[in-house]
Amino acid sequence: MRKVQEIKRVLVPVTFTESGEALIRYAGFFAQVTGAQLILLHCTGQPDVTYTQKSRLTQALRAFAQRVLSNNLLVSGNFVRFECIVRPRALQENLESTETNLRTDLLMADSLLPADAFYNKGHAASLAGHTDFPVMLMPLQQAYAPLSHLVCATDFTDRDPSVLQRITRFAEQLKAKLTLVHVYTPDQRWQRSNLHQAMRKTRELLNNNSIKLVLLEDDGLVDGIGEFVEKENADMLILTTQDNFLPRNLLSRTYSKTMAYHTQIPIVTFRQEKQKPCSGSCTNCAKRKPETDLKPELKSFPVYAN
């Protein structure tokens, strides 16, 4: 596999609130570990912004960030490079131009921030699947902790070598252990031979014996992932997905209210174009042909991480 570039520029959408301060603080520690530069973006939610307004908001954002990051410096002793940008409209409306102009490698957002003019539609989980770069959803009720063990929920039968390579490089940059897990249900036991074969092929693609691969049987995908992450005492959950169906369900109110383990650690989504429809009736799959039109070899395996 060819060499993949590290995470060097992290886009952080910021509001002048306590949650915005917590997000900058977490992003600062993340940047100190990875050596990345922070791109602090404030979206006004208004159709337009004057030059004077933009100048004042940029200065306010810079002062806001310097105050927060100076406290990080006292703790770690490492400086954090950052850039401040102010734009009109909501975040989702700015994402396309932001990708082009800022060469962003990762988007970091508050996982439980509710819908408002800032995010436009839905909470932050709705951002997953809308960008080509990874989206990190942060549990801001938790202080930053070293990211030493990453668990990636994926589908061994629907692989994308380039996505696997990016996830592997991400774990290496964090100097973290990586575990890949594929969840299947009891009524799919008859496919275990095929699943084991797919897992072996995934191992060959990774070409890295330090990465752990696991096949897990559970009654449900979301519960299975959540329980596995807790059992492994993981510091981060990674999803390979082309839509926001799975991250939205993992961060639903049901889990948030019970403070499930996976809602207390970062969730990172890597976009992957799936070859098969998922079981969640997501937006992407709703646009596809009915399953009866699929080739037999594609119908024989279910998709779990979409």
UniProtKB/TrEMBL annotation:
Pfam families: Usp. InterPro entries: UspA (IPR006016). Coiled coil: none annotated. Residues 149-268 form the UspA domain. Belongs to the universal stress protein A family. This is Universal stress protein. It comes from Pontibacter oryzae.
